[in-house]
Amino acid sequence: MLTALVGGVALGLAGPALAQTAPAQTAWRLLDYIAVDYPEAVADGKITNAGEYAEMQEFSATAAKLIGELPASSARTGLERQAGDLQRIIAAKASAPAIATAARGLAADLIKAYPVPLAPTIAPDVARGKTLYAQQCASCHGASGKGDGPQARGLDPAPIAFADEARARERSVFALYQVLEQGLDGTSMASFAELPPQDRWALAFYAGSFAYPESEAKAGKTLWDGDADLRQRLDLEKLVGTTPAALAAQVGEDKARQLTAYLRRHPEATVAAEAAGTLTLARARLDAALAAYGRGERKTATDLALSAYLDGFEPVEAVLSARDNTLMVRIEGAMADLRAGIAKSEPVETVKERVATLDGLFADAETALAPSEASATSSFVAAFTILAREGLEALLIVVAMIAFLSKADRRDMLPYVHGGWIAALVAGAATWAAATWLIAISGASRELTEGFGGVFAAIVLLWVGIWMHGKSNADAWQRYIRDKLSKALNRRSAWFLFLLAFVVVYREVFETILFYAAIWGQGNGGAVIAGALAAVALLAVIAVVMMRYSRTLPIGTFFAYSSALIAILAVVLIGKGSAALQEAGYLPVTPWPGLPRSELLGIYPTHETIGAQLVMVVLLVAGFLWNRRSAIRAGRAAA
């Protein structure tokens, strides 16, 4: 009874919001349903379901009428002729393949002549679609898409069974999106036009995956990864508009099922294929952002500009940073300036100039990224620099924790610290394996991991730094040992130490692994390994020196130095964490012209990151002053 669901739509669509696009979209949807449902009405030239056949006639007539009402154009006459041909072959009870071919051909020509959005601007988040489906759709369509939800009983017509493969193979994601956008008049299927377009696309992809089990997705990934020609032919727009049946005609039924199972769960794979090795995707997203901004669609322009960075530029950022860090910094800054300009509603010409500047920078980047630029020396330097830089922050924090526990004679707590950083290394190895064989880690996921990890660590270090500063007075430390230490460092504290060691190390391991994966892909594996080993050796020397030096320091001096080191690291990490959240689009970007940038110190030239660091400095200073006053009062009381 799926055709019954659209009868009301064909006759009852109304509303000012759809006034411009409804005729073409509605005609397209009617043609799509004719192609899908005609086999239920006619078989072997005979009517098998009179009600369904009557709807086929009605829908083809309505589609022809809607096409005739479209704005005049050179293409409309041809479309009207095709619509008349479709009516005639339906009246003649033609075969299902002939009807499907005619209806699909007319629908494709209709969209060419009267365009509507055919694909999402960026790859949809299918996990978001799963959440929305559970909230909005499962009550009727069922948790597994079989049309058997708790509210489905008594509905006439019954909800669509997305898990029905016979129907699903004839339905594109675009068709599902159209239903979500317009709803179905006369049924319980309401319009979801209030949802953002990206959410509707995410829902369409998720609903379109039910008929293709996840067990086949792994084989689909293998097919996709191993066929460069297929990746070139099937971009995001073609994926959205292609039915599984049409794909089967190109690659065969089994492969089509496997590819559909994979790509409808991972549409971002089409974007990754497009972006591999070049900045083509970044350019395309920026052009689309500029076009959207020119139309006054600031939110869309913002999303596209963010996608240009996360999906287009960040996949090559690691390699570019290793070969020309100055250029990488310039591109990051220019992309941040573009997003800030869009947020401030700068004139279109100004935004256009920013996009043109980035286009020139991308040309320089592609020169630097050329395979000819990948030398053994550059790979060694990149591997050494990245691991030494990322590992130093984590090392300083972990060594400070170990030294503190040794000084406090609480070596029983050391296994928790060691367990934390070892677990982080294991999790890092699992991340590498997952990123290599199971999933593609998006730019947004990377930035969020780095951002929230950095902010969490900075907040913890704020507390630890103030606490250690308060114990820098020898008398205060002795009192603390006598009165509180045995109680304070209990099992809860031990697991807290484990968590802190895990977070600070995993944050750095996560970023290092992604950088190394990019560098490794450029060849010179021996040089990469040599650079990594050299960095490990350097970090080991630093750790040994710090541990030996800490043993010789008086307890008060040790705490004074440690609190200063941890305070500095807290300021650095809050800056880095805030910058990562900006790059993920979770914080606004307000450039601070003329301010220098230093990744080592976590200084980024934006008001938000500098503001976060200033707040951290103020809190640290306030805590240190409070400690000083407390020590003075304690000294007076003792006297």
Automatic annotation (TrEMBL):
UniProt keyword Membrane, yes or no: yes
Signal peptide: 1-19
Cytochrome c domain boundaries: 124-267
Compartments where located: Membrane
CC annotations in GO: high-affinity iron permease complex
Keywords: Heme, Iron, Membrane, Metal-binding, Signal, Transmembrane, Transmembrane helix
Homology family: Belongs to the oxidase-dependent Fe transporter (OFeT) (TC 9.A.10.1) family.
InterPro entries referenced in this protein's UniProt entry, alphabetically: Cyt_c-like_dom, Cyt_c-like_dom_sf, FTR1/Fip1/EfeU
One MF annotation (Gene Ontology) recorded for this entry: ferrous iron transmembrane transporter activity
Membrane spanning residue stretches: 380-404, 416-440, 452-470, 494-519, 525-546, 558-581, 601-626
Pfam families the record matches: Cytochrom_C, FTR1
Record Gene3D superfamilies: Cytochrome c-like domain
Membrane topology: Multi-pass membrane protein
Native source species: Sphingobium yanoikuyae (Sphingomonas yanoikuyae)
SUPFAM superfamilies named in the record: Cytochrome c (SSF46626)
Name of this protein: Cytochrome c/FTR1 family iron permease
Keyword flag Repressor: no
